Amino acid sequence: MLVVYFSSATENTHRFVKKLGLPARRIPLKRSDEPLIVDEPYVLICPTYGGGAGILHQNSRPVPPQVIRFLNNEHNRSLIRCVVSSGNSNFGVDFGKAGDVIAEKCHVPYVYRFELLGTEEDVRILRDGLRANARALGFENPELSEPVDSVPGSASERERLI
Q: Cβ neighbours of residue 90 under 8 Å, at least 6 residues apart?
């Protein structure tokens, strides 16, 4: 089961993904980097940008532009099976908003949201939930592989799938 993720310079999402222990590919931070093309179904993990805009009745752009570029590739978009997002619960209704937007536009389930870099409980809930629901999410091989990092270098309220 492949995890595709985007992490900003803060590395919060990167640290969370490493704790999952699943094969992972990172969406490049810089436009000048080689674009990521995937060749298997994946779980997308994405941080939310522009927190609080909804509370302030402003337009927000919660999905990072790098993720938009990645998903604008029809091949990449065709392989997404579900989305997970992170955010800051201080932003109320905008907490994890990127997941809502991606799920709606890509017609996939929004399975989980976590705060900032997540907790050990978030890691356990997501990993166990993905394993238990792999077939329902469209993964042919529900077994979780050994960790591979291709990049160098109240919880019940947040649950969606699990």
A: 51, 52
Q: How would you label 14-53 residue by residue, b for 16+ Cβ within 10 Å and e otherwise?
A: bebbbbbbbbbbbbeeeeeeeebebeebbbbbbbbbbbeb
Cα–Cα distance measured from residue 140 to residue 86, given in angstroms and rounded to the nearest whole number? 26
Neighbours of 2 (CB within 10 A): 20
The pTM of the full predicted model, rounded to 2 decimals, is 0.84
Q: How far apart are the first and last CA of the chain?
A: 17
Chosen CATH of 2-157 out of 3.40.50.150, 3.30.428.10, 3.90.76.10, 3.40.50.360: 3.40.50.360
Q: Where are the beta strands (DSSP E) in 6-160?
A: 24-26, 42-47, 80-87, 110-115
Task: Report pLDDT digits (tens) over 25-50.
Answer: 999 999 999 999 999 999 999 999 87
SS3 33: coil
Domain locations in the chain?
Answer: 2-157
Place of tokens 């590739």: 73
The per-residue pLDDT for range 83-99, each reduced to its tens digit, is 999 999 988 888 999 99
